[in-house]
Amino acid sequence: MRILYDGGCPLCLREVRLLRARDQQRHGDQPVLAFIDIDAAGYDPSAHAGITYRDAMGTIHGISGDGELLSGVEVFRRAYGLVGLGWIYAPTRWPLVQPLVESLYQLWARWRLRLTGRPGLEELCRNRCAVSSVAEPALGGVRTTAAAEPPPAAPRA
What we know:
Elements: E1 2-5, H1 10-27, E2 34-37, H2 53-58, E3 61-63, E4 69-71, H3 73-82, H4 86-89, H5 98-115, H6 121-135
Parallel strand pairs: 1-2
Antiparallel strand pairs: 1-3, 3-4
């Protein structure tokens, strides 16, 4: 299972370290979890079910081994289950508990950036677009930002 996580989030990193260690304990050199840092400059949505930076920053996403797209609390349920800690998230499936947990997660996802002292999602997305635009000249010298100058006009006959 691939888990798309925010490498700039201290709490996310703590969870990744816990899951990675447990995965290694349980599965050794054949881990069942792969962690994809969406905050890394090279993150490519097309390699991960088309999940954009914005979507991935808004809520956690995972992709199961058979390609099923997961999001929210279900990602944690599956990941913890795969490393033998499914009992931790098992109560989140109970009919009275599930809606409460889902709502609490949505609140966390909405406020996560502010609570961890980071800029808001809009600012992060703007900054990411600016970084992407600056990197584009390496791709054949074409720049596709609004600041790019138009090509010179053709000479008049």
